[in-house]
Design a protein that fits this description.
7-stranded antiparallel β-sheet; elongated; 7 strands; Alpha-D-Glucose-1,6-Bisphosphate, Chain A, domain 4; alpha+beta; 232 residues
Length: 232
């Protein structure tokens, strides 16, 4: 895909997300306004602090000096990210690593979804995925992904109208994600969107890297098959 197709795909995906969650745009605007107000407050406090400190030195005024110091401290209070607190350390610990892959798959939406369901996910196009066992109900599977440094995952999948939601236990960290198929406006292809995330740690990063490599190859293989059957 060239840059124009990538930008068009991203724009179409954003429209789909806004259609699914109309409040998303409002939340993003509130976040941007709050960030902008914080920046303005910090700049104003730092400007006031510099002015008052300079005036305190020029006029040998202790009052102006202390006022400048108070304004300087206020700038750090406005900029919450600069103050290392217990809450910020907790938020840091809860950060997640995540990635997204989007690819255009040729064919009508119903055909592409039916093919994904019949294949039980992207498994047939994954080059190194090996199924080790199931729990007897087909809801959970133990699989192995990767060549040299393979990753073992116990995967649970749930189908919904537009694709699959999945959860994987990587012997400690839990990964979650989805494979979502959104019809394009033209109706002759489908946007396959794969998302995965996990709480930030060394083991989850390795698992996410391995799954991402596998997913990229699987999507390209699937897209090549579909594009051969439904050439543009």
């Amino acid at each position: 895909m060239d840059d124009e197709q990538v930008n068009s795909t991203i724009a179409e995906l954003e429209r789909c997300l806004l259609d699914d969650d109309p409040s998303l745009a409002r939340r993003l605007r509130r976040i941007r306004r709050a960030d902008g107000a914080r920046v303005v407050a910090v700049v104003a406090a730092l400007t006031a602090a510099a002015t008052l400190l300079a005036a305190g030195l020029a006029f040998a005024s202790g009052t102006l000096w202390f006022a400048g110091g108070a304004a300087f401290l206020a700038a750090f209070a406005f900029d919450r990210h600069r103050v290392p607190t217990a809450a910020s350390r907790t938020a840091e610990a809860r950060r997640v690593d995540q990635w997204n892959e989007v690819l255009s798959i040729a064919g009508p939406w119903s055909t592409v979804v039916g093919e994904l369901r019949a294949a039980d996910g992207l498994d047939p196009w994954c080059p190194t995925l090996r199924r080790i066992s199931t729990d007897g109900t087909h809801d959970a599977q133990l699989v192995c992904v990767g060549h040299r440094r393979s990753v073992s995952l116990r995967i649970t999948r749930r189908w919904f109208a537009d694709g699959i939601r999945w959860q994987a236990d990587a012997a400690g960290p839990v990964l979650v994600g989805h494979v979502t198929l959104q019809p394009a406006a033209t109706g002759d292809h489908v946007l396959a969107w794969v998302h995965a995330e996990a709480a930030r740690c060394r083991h989850s990063r390795r698992a996410l890297r391995t799954i991402r490599r596998e997913t990229r190859i699987a999507l390209r293989r699937w897209a090549t098959t579909r594009n051969t059957e439904f050439p543009h």
